[in-house]
């Protein structure tokens, strides 16, 4: 059996090669994202294995059908970049990895919150410029004394909430479908707006569905307490970036950590082609001393990558054996 993996980095390559040897399948590795233009490399494959923020569009699915490749097995959870209508039209099945390491993203959220509250980027910039006296005068805040608002309490959001509670913060949450097994310390709010009015630290963990476009817009950003911080490791479309920049420029917000960026596809195209990002919103945020920009890497730990690769391959083997998927995805 042949499997072709697209968008592969060096860490993934190691785990994929190990699995190919252990489980006896032929493996083709492609660094570039999957597209109709390069899909001939996958000819003869039982499935496409992929991870990318670029689109899975109709030409891609048409090409898969022409090559008789019936399965797209994602190495990640997000599906907002998939043309499901096209996949259905061409009879392509899709699987994902819904849970691979909530702890990895949780640790990243914690790191981001602490960096913003203790103003570590500002201090680093001052120290690098030789301005040690200003750095010594920068006063931070304790995370344990903040009200942390968690939007979305699925696997990742709930793990974040748990760690924040263990640190000593008051944790409030909003989810359209609250957990029935929620502990007493997790205080669900009746609406997103109610949560925003109290959240000193806001962290987003909902999917990038069309309905969630600009979930955090200018009106809702204004509801946050003064000097609140915003962390987004969910999806880029959740925040109106122009409104976020305005809230930072006016001093309404004390800082932001953006791992998933609204115009991510634009800068990813540039990064993939070896260029420096030039998107105007990105450059504005990157230049701010109270903003931490990272390239969609909150998930990227060795344990998480190993799980993502293994579960994706498990889906392919299940499909080839009896036509079933462990983690099927339907649009």
Automatic annotation (TrEMBL):
Transmembrane domains' residue ranges: none
Annotated ranges, domain D-isomer specific 2-hydroxyacid dehydrogenase catalytic: 10-329
Keywords, sorted A to Z: NAD, Oxidoreductase
Claim: Oxidoreductase is one of the keywords in the record: yes
D-isomer specific 2-hydroxyacid dehydrogenase NAD-binding domain residues: 111-298
An example Gene Ontology molecular-function term: D-lactate dehydrogenase (NAD+) activity
Cited Pfam families: 2-Hacid_dh, 2-Hacid_dh_C
Alphabetical list of InterPro entries matching this protein: D-isomer_2_OHA_DH_cat_dom, D-isomer_DH_CS, D-isomer_DH_CS1, D-isomer_DH_NAD-bd, D-LDH-like, NAD(P)-bd_dom_sf
Membership in a protein family: Belongs to the D-isomer specific 2-hydroxyacid dehydrogenase family.
The protein's name: D-lactate dehydrogenase
Organism, scientific name: Lapidilactobacillus concavus DSM 17758
């Amino acid at each position: 059996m042949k499997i072709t993996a697209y968008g592969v980095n060096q860490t993934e390559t190691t785990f994929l090669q190990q699995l190919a040897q252990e489980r006896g399948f032929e493996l083709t590795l492609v660094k570039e994202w999957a597209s109709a233009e390069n899909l001939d490399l996958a000819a003869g494959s039982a499935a496409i294995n992929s991870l990318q923020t670029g689109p899975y569009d109709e030409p891609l699915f048409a090409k898969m059908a022409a090559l008789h490749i019936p399965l797209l097995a994602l190495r990640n959870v997000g599906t907002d970049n998939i043309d499901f209508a096209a996949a259905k039209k061409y009879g392509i099945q899709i699987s994902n990895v819904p849970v691979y390491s909530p702890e990895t993203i949780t640790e990243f959220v914690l790191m981001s919150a602490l960096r913003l509250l203790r103003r570590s980027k500002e201090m680093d910039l001052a120290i690098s410029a030789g301005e040690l006296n200003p750095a010594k005068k920068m006063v931070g805040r304790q995370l344990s004394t903040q009200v942390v608002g968690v939007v979305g309490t699925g696997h990742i959001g709930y793990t974040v909430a748990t760690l924040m509670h263990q640190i000593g913060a008051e944790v409030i949450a909003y989810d359209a479908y609250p957990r029935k097994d929620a502990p007493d310390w997790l205080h669900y709010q009746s609406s997103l707006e109610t949560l925003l009015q109290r959240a000193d630290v806001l962290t987003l963990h909902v999917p990038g569905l069309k309905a969630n476009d600009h979930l955090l817009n200018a009106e809702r950003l204004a509801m946050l307490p003064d000097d609140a911080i915003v962390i987004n490791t969910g999806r880029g479309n959740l925040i109106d970036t122009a409104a976020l920049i305005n809230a930072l420029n006016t001093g309404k917000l004390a800082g932001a950590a953006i791992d998933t960026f609204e115009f991510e596809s634009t800068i990813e195209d540039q990064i993939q082609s070896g260029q420096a990002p030039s998107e105007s919103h990105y450059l504005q945020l990157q230049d701010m001393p109270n903003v931490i920009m990272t390239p969609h890497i909150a998930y990227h730990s060795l344990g998480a990558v190993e799980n993502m690769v293994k579960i994706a391959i498990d889906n392919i083997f299940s499909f080839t054996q009896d036509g079933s998927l462990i983690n099927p995805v339907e649009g």
